[in-house]
Every structure is written in structure tokens, then in C-alpha cells.
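Table S2 (continued). Query chain:
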Amino acid sequence: MKIEKTVTEAITFRRSVRIYKQEDEIDSKAVKKCLENAVLAPTSSNLQLWEFYHITSKDVQKKISAACFDQPAAKTAKQLVVIVARKNLWRIRAKANLNFLKKNFGDKPIEDYDSREKFAITYYKKLIPSLYIDFLGVLGLMRYLVFNLVGLFKPVYRQLRNSDMRIVAHKSAALAAQNFMISMAAIGYDTCPMEGSDTLRIKRVLNLPRGAEINMVIACGVRDPKGTYGPRFRIPFQEVYKEI
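Corresponding output:
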């Protein structure tokens, strides 16, 4: 049985690998397991506004690779994973959270809920809709202006525009992607997150709806010795670490 690397070992092992060995296949079940780890990533308000498309079909992989400009990571990958941000599913995911909470709180009248339980229910029934409902960006702009006015007198949440909520969804999707890549590294598989792509073409290949947005495409495989383009470079830690 293969022993997984420690977290630190996996993080150190992980590199953005751009060329993969063609003779080494990877186990799609193991990749799927790593995606199961991805969904355990932290996510804003637990809305989980993400989807993961695991591409094992060679025909589909060729189409995705072409949409990624046939860059070496995409062209030589044994499998691909497309991370999709789904801000447009906030109503469905908020309802799922509500149903989960009510089930765990027990079958009882709402007046019997304690203050913590009432807050949780109100959060998904009222606060989340107040943040995500928008119309052509107008409501988001109004919220932004009002809250920034209030913010002159006290701390307030300021990321209230439609573009801000899109960023929130993409941040959560990126956290899940990192969970996936570290999980892959832990079992000795390599990855490369790719942003350079024709996202519209990828959406067409995957038959995604208009509201879905491509977060990144991740190439998967076993690294070729030429797959990393040199030693790892990082800005010196003391330049980016600030203790206050």
C-alpha cells in the first residue's frame, strides 16, 4: 500500500509540471478521491459554489487542450480537471444548507429554536439573498454605496457588488483546487493549474450554462524530468512575511 506524503512533504513536492510522462498512466479512481478532498475546502458561507469536471475521455481532452492553446501541460496531460465557479447556484446551495440545518436542529416549530439556531436559519433565508440578489448590477451598487456610507461610522462588509460576489465564488473554487493539487501531490501525482485558455470554448465543450465560469483547468499526470522548467523560485520569505 502506497504511503501518502505528509502535508509539508506534499506541498514541497508539488510543482507546476508542464510535461508529463506518456508511458505512465494515472488511476482515475485516485484522482476522483483527490477531488473528494477538494470539496472539503473552506468555502464562503458554506455555499460550495463550485463544480469539478474530471476529463478522462481522450476526445474531450483533445478539445479542452485545444482551448488551452495546446500548451504542453494540457497536451501531454493524462487527465484534466476543470474547476468551475457556479455563483448562479447560490439559491440551490443556500436551500441545501437550510434543509441540512433544519434536519440537524430537529423537527420542531421555529419558535422552539434557540438564538443560535434562529441566527443560522435567518442567515440563509435573509442575509444570503440580500447579498446575492441583483439586477444588472444596480442592487449591488446601491448596497455598496449605502454600506460604504455606514462604514464612515463603524466597520461594515464592503464587498457587495456583483463583481465582488463573483470573486467570492472564484476564491472558494481556488481553495478547492489547492486541496485537490496537494492531495494529488500526496500520492505522487503531478498537476499544473492553467489560466491561459479560451474559457468560452471550454464551456461549449462541457455544455455549461451561461452563469457557469471557468476558474482554472488543471493538468494531471506523472512528471517528465523536463516537466519543470528549472529550480523553484520564491521571493525571499522575509520580504513577504509581516509580523504585527
